Amino acid sequence: MASISNDDIPPTERSTLLHGSRLFFVMFGLGCSVCLGALDQTVVATSSPKIVSDFNALNQISWIAGAYLLTETSLQPIYGKLSNIFGRKVTILFSVFVFELGSLLCGFAQNMISFIIFRAIAGVGGGGILILADTIVTDIVSAKDVGRYQSIINAFYGITTVVGPILGGIFTDHVSWRWSFFINLPLGAITIITVTFSLHSPKQTALLKNIKRLDVTGIAIIIVSTICILLPLNWGGNAYAWNSPIIIAPFCVGVVGYALFGFVESYVAVEPIAPLAFLHGMSFYSFITYVPIYFQAVKGYSATMAGVALAPYVLGFSVATAITGQLYSRTDKVTHRLLCLIGSAFMTISFGLITMWNENSGPGELIGFIIIAGLGAGIIFQDVLLCCQESIEHKDIAITTSLLMFFNTVGGVLGNAIIGNIFYTKLIQFSSSLALPQSFTPQSVYCIQFLPAETRSLVIHAYSMALHSSFIAFIPMCGLSFILSLFMGNIKPSYSEENLGRVI
After folding, report:
1. Residues 162 and 223 reside in one and the same domain
2. Which among 265, 339, 393, 254 has a CA at the least distance from the CA of 2?
3. Residues 155-203 pLDDT 10s
4. Domain containing residue 28: CATH number
5. Which pTM was predicted?
6. Smallest Cα–Cα separation from 478: which of 402, 376, 398?
7. Alpha-carbon torsion, ordered 148, 154, 158, 159, to 10 deg
């Protein structure tokens, strides 16, 4: 990806700060766009078991998040650059429109294959939403007000992440899981209308010249590499043996591709920030995908109650990001390394405790362990973002934020594939020895409730053991994050009277 000089970057929205009603409407529109990103991560979590049950495709549950994350991940590294080339307004409108199109198609999907394709389309748009909303705030308000207005954006995100799992459960239980996607349409429409009429964007000239500056080579490498790694992780042990050439060959191509991408984008490397973001994504996205299966399959919760049970995780995440931001802006007594160590320790401990879950686990164990995991994940995510943003110039914020999000979500793609493979392989292994009715298939979580009581308890135990094996895989991910935190250096947040109250 070619570097961008100051002369290459067109005048941004920062040249005209917004005030009054225009600022209000833009902030409201950006808040709605953030809700889109937050909803996609949480509302679908509690709908997923019903979706795969309707399509008889439990073995493909990782693709519900994976297909979206695949395209989102592949395009995130360039959204920051796109916004510098074409302007924030055009880029975020494009992002929201494509996301809306994908969501609409998902709501009408008739089989798992089409659903996966439509999720991938939504991911093309989703890759830029959160990044651009955060960046636009730094353009439209003065530096001393950035913290105040980004706190508003964070509030939209926090509220949505808490409400999302519950909303997904309500739709699934009382209307249809399809409304988990239709709900995005009015929010996206508000964003498009408010941004179109309220956000100023300089006219772009030399469009063809700008297009030529896009990193087509880097985009192609990362898309192909991600697909080559994702496919064998989903197929291995299920469709093909792990030592099959069909598994080994694409995996090797993917690894080489990522190494090549790292070389091409060599200016990107910020060690160990990128690996920390990568590991955070592996645990975060996998957690919100597979914990709802535990609540619905093992505990027998409805989708609504599974959403309520997951809420402490996203609540803990939101609280932790807010506290970390406040520590960043109000004191220089803590270091970035210390915060990441604390967050990683919380996550490692929580996932170690979560492996103890079984059919008889009580509410205290469930809620307490989930809150600890959410707090740890929130601390790491916010601290890594702050640490990186603090060391760069304003003109590079969009690009740097997009790259951090890229490492976070590529971790999510691979984490979902790994955890999904472990879960489904173990589920088939544990259930294969059971005398089950021919009408029953482990592909459908919702079939469990129709089994005879004695058989049902055996199947629930099989699900519990399969999830136990999956949860164990979280521990080394979080443990490695703790180890990498030791090498961050003893860097303290910037602290000055000018920076007081600033939360990014």
Report:
1. no
2. 265
3. 777 778 778 888 888 998 899 999 989 999 998 999 899 888 888 766 5
4. 1.20.1250.20
5. 0.72
6. 376
7. 70
